Amino acid sequence: LGLALYASSLCVVSGAAFLYHDYCIIGAGPSGLQAAYFLQQAGRDYVVFERSHAPGSFFALYPRHRKLISINKRYTGKSNAEFNLRHDWNSLLSHDRRLLFRRYSRDFFPDADAMVRYLEDFASLLKLRVQYNTAIVHVTLERDEQAWNGHYFLLTDQDRQNYKCSSLLVATGTWVPNVVNFPGSEYVEGYETVSINPEDFAGQTVLILGRGNSAFETAENILGVTNFIHMVSRSRVRLSWATHYVGDLRAINNGLLDTYQLKSLDGLLEGNLEDLAIIKDKKGKLHITLRFYLENRNISAGIESITLPQDELDNFATRAPYDRVIRCLGWKFDFSIYNRSLRVMPGKGNKKKYPQIKPSYESRGTRGLFVLGTASHSVDFRKSAGGFIHGFRYTTRAVHRLLENRHHGVPWPSTVYPITQLTNSIIKRVNEASGLYQMFSVLADIILLRENATAFEYLEEYPVGVLAELEMQTGRKAPNGLFVIIMEYGRNFSGADKDVFYYNRAVGEAQHAWQSNFLHPVIYYYKRLPTEREMRLRPPDWPLPRPDAIHHIVEDFLTDWTAPNAHILPLRRFLENCLGTDLRNFFAESCFLFAFTRQKLPPFCQQGYVRMQGLVGSEGLRRHAVEAGLLEDYTLTDFSGDRPPDSHEGSQDQLLRDHAIPVRPLQHLVNAKDE
What family does the entry list (predicted)? Predict the structure, then answer.
């Protein structure tokens, strides 16, 4: 039987044997393991290829100085697991409560070795199917009309073993160092190999190429032992608290900014690195010059024969020679293993380090090839957290749900509620949901309205970039309009040149909610599903096209959107205006009155009171309603006058106070009248 099963897993193509799986995942980093978890939970046929002997090999080396910049907030004052994930930037999603990162480190900024241990446990405890020591060196296509996507993916490893799969999930991250070639670049040390022992830099003068966290991390490590450190990059420094992008410079690494601005020799410069040139003198010192000074000159002829910038400008900023030059320019995606038939192409501009993908995370060149994790960051580069664990754990789940619908006919998970629960459902999600919170402006909750707005269907964390394709991608229908719930920062609040600490930066009044600066919920209402053309022509910096109506829930200092007057009441009235209905909750007495005084009952009375559902009355509840002005206080009726105690008002008061006597529904009253 075992031989038969093994033989059935082999496909013979042109004489070569291929091991077949429905899903192949390249890379056992965080996103690869996250995808494997969802596929395993769904019972799918998959395999993960990992070139190293253990998962998370990137974290075994990086960051070089071993301190992660992803926060590990162990205490929030709340026990809600979904809410706590908002402030846990390292855990992957799973059902196993043992696999929360706070059990692996007590540090707010954990050591990278803790991440290595965590990923090893994640793979082993969940029994994920990872094939280690398998480096995929070539990927190509085989056309086949019978395949899911019209072709199969053919993979070859370092031992020339071949594999065949219907869908390919690329989770390799970005690990190829960015290198700038210029005259003298052979004297530059790379971040990936430079010493991390501060004593190796004692008394030296250092130039660092780069302006990101790896550059500042390197500078922070040697700040106290060097003569001075200069840092040069083509762009100005971008602080994460100003841009609200976690990939920009974090406070934990910005010591060099202090020593620069407080006049302690260190400094930052801006310039195009490709215009530089480095010349080494006889003493081993490195001199910085410009490329055009070297045109038609022989560098090997010696520094004495070469014109340096300080020869013409005696206060040239980098005229002092350096002992070492370190390259810290980040990483890029490895395009080398993909055959041209897959058309895996780099992005444009500042996204060229990532492959081109759609907002659905599917390759623009090849159907069925999805990019996960850090390499998928082109969708939200410099906007949201899709390049980091606390972001791509949710986008990976979204990709899995898209695949489940496409290949297995499993619609996007949803829950149907009566329309009376619309306000509560939104308030609950904006106060708890971690995916909306971390992947702001990228993932959204979708509310699909049923006919006559009597009920709604709730879909969680759908990629807004493919909103026009919602019916095809999810298997759900949206014929009666929809709400889109998303989290956003203020339009003009984020940027490298923004002062985010200015006076009166916060908005506190509901009528000015649209001017909120900090992260806050925004609800878009569409009478119909937006088209692809409308998505393409949406206003700049808008995540969605112009809606039929829009509502901002005012920002909150505690990120707690439960204030009755500031948050809930304006939201409810917005929803009522969109739907043309009354979404308030009523006591049975009010529904009883409406039954005789209105042509149409509010939904709460229709779906509750008329069906003999709702809150059971009591004296304490009645008294609270009276004090709140929701009911009249019939106990103040004076029975000492001419009116007898068995009058109509007295009987009504007795009925209201005696909760043991049930109120008969409207249809029973009609029958009694007929009788």
Answer: Belongs to the FOXRED2 family.
What does the angle CA 327 – CA 332 – CA 338 come to, to the nearest 5 degrees? 140
Beta strands (DSSP E) in 345-466 are: 369-371, 414-418, 443-449, 455-463
DSSP string, 449-467: EPGGGSEEEEEEEEEGGGG
Q: Do domains 19-176+332-402 and 185-329 have the same CATH topology?
A: yes
Three-class secondary structure of residue 43 per DSSP: coil
Where does the pLDDT of residue 14 fall: very low under 50, low under 70, confident under 90, or very high at 90 and above? very low
**What SS3 class is residue 515?**
helix
Question: In the block, which residue shows the tokens 């200015």?
Answer: 502
Could you tell me how many helices (H) and strands (E) the chain has, helices first? 20, 23
Angstrom distance (rounded) from CA 555 to CA 500: 15
- CB count, 10 Å around CB of 413? 13
Per DSSP, the three-state class of 162 is: strand
Q: How many residues does the chain have?
A: 675
For residue 561, what are its two tokens?
């959107």
Residue 231 is inside which H or E element, if any? strand 228-233
d(CA 468, CA 548): 15
Packing angle of the helix pair 389-408, 30-41 (nearest 10 deg): 40
Mean pLDDT of the chain: 88
User: Is residue 299 very low, low, confident or very high in pLDDT (cuts 50, 70, 90)?
Assistant: low
Strands 549-552 and 520-526: what pairing?
antiparallel
Q: Which two tokens stand for residue 505?
A: 């930066």
Q: What is the pLDDT at residue 659?
A: 39
H or E element: which one contains 657?
helix 648-657
What's the 3-state SS for 307-354?
CCHHHHCCCCCCCCCECEEEECCCEECCCCCECHHHCCCECCHHHCCC
CA triple 611-614-620, angle to 5 deg: 145
**What is d(CA 447, CA 417) in angstroms, rounded to the nearest whole number?**
10
Evaluate whether 486 touches 464 at the Cβ level (below 8 Å): yes
**C-alpha–C-alpha distance, residues 520 and 501, integer Å:** 18
Where do the domains of the chain lie?
19-176+332-402, 185-329, 414-579, 588-624
Contact 571, 448 (CB under 8 A): no
Q: What letter represents residue 352's amino acid?
A: K
Tell me the pLDDT tens digit for each residue of 632-663. 776 665 544 454 444 444 444 443 444 333 43
The dotted CATH code for 185-329 is 3.50.50.60
Q: What is the pLDDT of residues 75-86, one digit of tens each?
A: 999 999 999 999
Tell me the pairing of strands 205-209 and 324-327: parallel
Q: How many other C-beta atoms can be found within 10 angstroms of the C-beta atom of residue 597?
A: 7
> For residue 577, which of 549, 543, 602, 598 has the smallest C-alpha distance?
549
How is residue 524 annotated by DSSP? E
Whole-angstrom distance between the N-terminal and C-terminal Cα of the chain?
Answer: 76
Supply 607's token pair. 């779906």
| CA angle (436 as vertex; 584, 547 as ends), nearest 5 | 65
Cα distance between residue 577 and residue 85, in whole Å: 34
In this structure, whether the domain defined by 19-176+332-402 belongs to CATH 1.10.3660.10 is answered with no
Model confidence over 233-286: pLDDT tens digits? 988 899 998 998 999 999 999 999 999 999 999 999 988 888 888 888 888 899
Q: Where are the alpha helices (DSSP H) in 360-388?
A: none
User: For 288-298, b where at least 16 C-beta lie within 10 A, e where not — what string?
Assistant: bbbeebbeeee
- C-alpha distances in angstroms, 650 versus 125, 465, 507, 629, 632? 69, 62, 51, 20, 14
